[in-house]
Amino acid sequence: MDNTTLIPLLIILVCAGSFLYKGIRGFLAASKENRRVRELDRSGVRARGVIAVVHPLERSPHGHRVTVTVAGGDGRRWEAVDASGLNGYLVREGTPVELTYAAGDPLNIRVERAAFPLPLQGLYPLYPHGLPKPPSPAWPLLYAVGGAALVLGVGVLVLNGGEAAGRFVPLLFAVLGPVFLVLAVRGLIRRGTGERRLTAEATGVVTDAWTEVRRRKGNNERHRTYRVHPFTLHFRAADGREVHHRHPVASGSFEPVVDQPLQVRYDPEHPADHALVGHMNAALGKSVALFFIGLVSTVLGVALTFVFWSTPPV
């Protein structure tokens, strides 16, 4: 085997191995979280508690971890950590909460309701649209197997001859393109439905801002670096509830600074559902990107498929 074949083969194997490594890591993490949530749903015991410690945000995309002093029905008290981020809410220390803990593991808890900051208003649900579902291990496994199989398949076609790759690779893009388009349209429809509930406004404040250097491949196959500017945002709703989390969109064109005010539009029933006024938001950004990828894949895939498959092989 000469170098002209060995080097591409090694690149193909490394890429396939990368898919397998990331997918298997994701599968193991999702399986662990799935077991934890299933245990809560299967043997969960309702209890009350009080927020004892609000841990720093630490630029986490999930929100604040909290330590809760749990009061069991039998008079026992213990402390446990909820690392879910409470759906983006900032629930202050001393706030009464309602939670579920696993009967076989009292340290496995999920805070589900918290008291309003203002007295005599009762408790509000942290997850009004349904409790968070456990991640499915099937997706990272599909990512691992599908990604590796795709890389190996395309690699075999390329190594066996450019004509075979030219006939089958465009067909693959022609099939995947419409799938991306459907996902993009569904995301845009959901975003439009959700934004109709954002009828209240507040002024948020940037609590932290930083720059991250990321890498992407250029046309010459070399990795190029580019900068994005993530930030964390805090705002208070009219009823006193607070939201504090890392904003899900970081761009290279918008570089906020600490203490910068930003206008927020939110759902008065559930302030964690919100969007920045005048800036790209996560749902829109993902849907636009998927639509663009799907459109380009469909057009190029169909065109190249027609060209290669209409031309008889030599």
From TrEMBL:
**Highest taxon of source:** Bacteria
Q: Write out the transmembrane intervals.
A: 6-28, 141-162, 168-189, 288-309
Keywords for this entry?
Membrane, Transmembrane, Transmembrane helix
Q: Where is the DUF3592 domain?
A: 202-279
Under the heading Pfam families, the entry gives: DUF3592
Instruction: Check the record and name the InterPro entries matching this protein.
Output: DUF3592
Record's protein name: DUF3592 domain-containing protein
Source species of the chain: Nocardiopsis alba
